[in-house]
Amino acid sequence: MSAxxxxxxxxxxxxxxxxxxxxxxxxxxxxxxxxxxxxxxTRYVERLETILAxxxxxxxxxxxxxxxxxxxxxxxxxxxLEVEESALRKVASDAEVxxxxxxxxxxxxxxxxxxxxYEHTPLSELMPAPAPTAAE
Length: 136
What we know:
mainly alpha
C-alpha cells in the first residue's frame, strides 16, 4: 500500500491525523525559546523525514499519537494499519533516530516538560508483538 509522495500534509489513509504534525511540533517548541530542545527535536524530525516517505511519516505520526493516548489510558489499543507497521519497522530499526529521540525525551524530562509515563519508551518497544503462527 503506497501513497504519492505529495501526500505529506494530507491524510490519505484516514488516520485522523493532519500531516505535518512533527513540523508543527517544531513551531510549538520555537515558542519555548529553548535552542537546545528545539535543536534536539528538529534533528529527530529531520531524521524521520530522511528515512520515511511522506505518507509513511503521516502514518507514523498517527500511530505515535495513538500510542501516547494508550499509554495515558485515554484510549484503548487499536489495530495497526499496514503502512503504520511498515513505517514503525523502519523507525525502530534505525539506531540514529532512536538516539535522537532519546536525547529529545531526556531534555524534556530534565526540564520537567514530560509526563513520567513517556520518559523511557524506546521506539522499538512500540512495535506490535508478532502474530502467532499456526504451530503455536
